Amino acid sequence: MKHLLSIADLGADGIEEVMRVTDSFVEVSARAIPRVPALRGKTVVSLFYEDSTRTRLSFETAAKRLSAETMTFSVSTSSVKKGESLKDTVETIEAMGIDAVVVRHGSAGVPWQVASWIDASIINAGDGWHEHPTQALLDCYTIRQALGGLDGRRVAIVGDIKHSRVARSNVLAFTALGAEVTLVAPPTLLPPSLEGWPVSVSHELDPVLAKADVVYLLRMQRERMTEALLPSLREYTARYGLTSRRAALLDDDAIVLHPGPMNRGVEIAAEVAELPRALVTQQVANGVAVRMAVLYLLLGSGADLAA
Amino acid sequence: MTRELVIAGGTVVDATGTRRADVLVRDGLVVGVGDGLAAAEALDATGCVVAPGLVDLHTHLREPGREEAETVETGSRAAALGGYTAVVAMPNTEPAIDSAAVVRQVLDLGATALCDVRVAGAITVGRQGSQLAPLAEMAELGVRLFTDDGAGVQDARLMRRALEYASSLDVTLAQHCEDAALATGGHMHEGAWSSRLGIPGIPAEAEELMVMRDSPVPACTSSTCRRRARWPWSPPPRPKASPSPPRSPRTTSP
Q1: Domain tally, chain B
Q2: CA-atom Rg of chain A in angstroms
Q3: What digits encode the pLDDT tens for the residues B141-151?
Q4: Per-residue pLDDT tens digits for A64-79
Q5: What's the structural domain count of chain A?
Q6: Does the beta-carbon distance from A193 to B203 stay under 8 Å?
Q7: A42 classed as catalytic
Q8: Which of A36, A97, A197, B120 is deepest in the core (most CB within 10 A)?
């Protein structure tokens, strides 16, 4: 397969394949010189229309560790400010000879559009509220690392599901691997329709915590306050924040994940973020290895990722 | 000197149904539809649809202001190619069709177009929804339909005033039913697919609430107040039918 646009393109087998390859790249990242020549001579461009620190750096680190050349296209310093269209931008970049484009954009579907315009491999690094496949892959990997797998595990995804590309990709990935997923949010932060979603829903967090193996917290964006979705962040934290009191309700082996960046004091208490069961830094470390695996599978070995 | 033409062998589609039939035309008027009709001139319509001219009540001719997208001329050409003999141009042009001047401009362009071009005027100045447009001035030039199409008139009081004022003018108001506060930010219908794709949706209520707000209600403030729901086009009275059985469909100027 040529692109990674959606978790749905991978299926359970594809996800397992990525995780298997990630194992070897975790080992590479632990070396004194964490570098392999697998993608030498290839060029990977980061095309980020939205601000991002962790995802962009993660992809660039992954590409560099595979010995690929990297280019960064940053919208704020580009001719996009002069009104250049997405299509012209993308075709200009391709004319310089590239093998892969890692795309992040505020509108759902952009990676598919870009894939229709140019020949390079396209990796979706987040398109609007729609999907963030590599995040879901690293989350699956982290859960497998901590708990041995996802089959039969209970995962609670808590927070602003409606506007979350992470939630959408995670629901697809976790359920594909056999987990039971419960969404926890107030009604205003759930998608208008959950028809076809293989999930349970709860508007109360406490009852869900006692049975959860994984609590996945989403960032509560302060921007949402202007949209009348919530009365206040304070009320959100009171009902849905993972406070110390709530963290104590968790099973001893339960883990806490967060895609970052965390709003300490909102969706997660500062002291809970420091608990051993909170694996956020592990997620970030795994992110580089997972993205190495994805780049390698798309540009390197020729092994098929398709479901 | 009578001139007769038969349009022969086509598929006639009209108010009575669809069937293969010939159409006899005398001095520019349809006088018969049936089988085996003949005349001095014949037009072979084999494989063609023969129908009364279609009328498009909601056409965007984009002129003035967006001529790179469409003009009255190109739009009328496309209309004629599709069997439309009359179109009604929507007023969401730049500037909007909210005054006699712009009405006049579009009608003049339409005079040389390939089909009849009628004009819908805006309900509010600039389609901004805050001030009534000069409806009577536009009606003087023959405008019979008013709409802010592209935007709904959000202010309930203004819409009520517009309906009251227009009730003395023998015109129709058409509301673009979309509550801006509910629709804002949406790119598709809000439902299962918008939820799955993570695309902001427009809830059905955005349309339904405005339909309910502006639809005819029993308690009207004025005995002459006539409110209409969206697109009931009121044709002018038909001329007295001259005896010519069987009654044949004819194009009426809209």
Answers
A1: 2
A2: 19
A3: 999 999 999 99
A4: 999 999 999 877 777 7
A5: 2
A6: no
A7: no
A8: B120
Same domain, A116 and A228: no
Closest CA to A101 of A77, A119, A85, A76: A119
Put simply, whether B186 touches A (Cβ < 8 Å) is no
Is A54 one of the catalytic residues?
yes
Q: Are residues B107 and B209 in the same domain?
A: yes
B152-157 long-range contacts, CB within 8 A, separation 24+: B152/B176, B152/B177, B152/B178, B152/B179, B152/B180, B152/B210, B153/B123, B153/B124, B153/B129, B154/B129, B154/B179, B154/B180, B154/B181, B155/B129, B155/B130, B156/B213
Residues of A in contact with B197 (CB under 8 A): 108-109, 130
Q: Do A265 and A171 share a domain, yes or no?
A: yes
Partners of B198 on chain A (C-beta within 8 Å) are 108, 128-131, 163, 165, 168
Residues from chain B that touch A163, judged by Cβ atoms under 8 A, are 198
Q: Which residues of A touch B200 (CB under 8 A)?
A: 129
Residues A126 and A88 in one domain: yes
Q: Which two tokens stand for residue A57?
A: 């750096």
Q: B52: how many CB neighbours lie within 10 A of its CB?
A: 17
Identify whether B250 is part of a domain: no
Considering the domain boundaries, does residue A2 fall inside one? no
From A3, A22, A43, A55, the catalytic residue = A55
Q: Which residue range forms the structural domain that includes residue B42?
A: 4-50
For residue B74, is it within any domain?
Answer: yes
Q: What is the pLDDT of residues A219-237, one digit of tens each?
A: 998 776 678 899 999 999 9
> Is B197 an interface residue toward A (CB < 8 Å)?
yes
* Angle value at C-alpha B26, between B23 and B32, nearest 5 degrees: 35
Q: How far is A108 from chain B (nearest CA, A)?
A: 7
Which tens digit of pLDDT belongs to each residue from A156-201? 999 999 999 999 999 999 999 999 999 999 999 999 999 999 999 9
Query: What pLDDT does A228 receive?
Result: 85
d(CA A160, CA A167): 9
Q: What is the ipTM of this complex?
A: 0.90
Residue B191 is assigned to a structural domain of this protein = yes
DSSP classification of residue A227: G
In a domain, A107, yes or no: yes
Same-domain check for residues A193 and A72: no
Asked, for residue B11, whether it belongs to a domain, the answer is yes
Tell me the pLDDT tens digit for each residue of B183-217. Answer: 999 999 999 999 999 999 999 999 999 999 998 75
Asked whether residue A138 falls in the same domain as residue A172, the answer is yes
Full residue range of the structural domain in which residue A193 is found: 133-279
Residue B218 has pLDDT above 80, yes or no: no
Per residue in B65-93, pLDDT (tens digit) is: 999 999 999 999 999 999 999 999 999 99
Q: Tell if the CB–CB gap between A193 and B191 is shorter than 8 Å.
A: yes
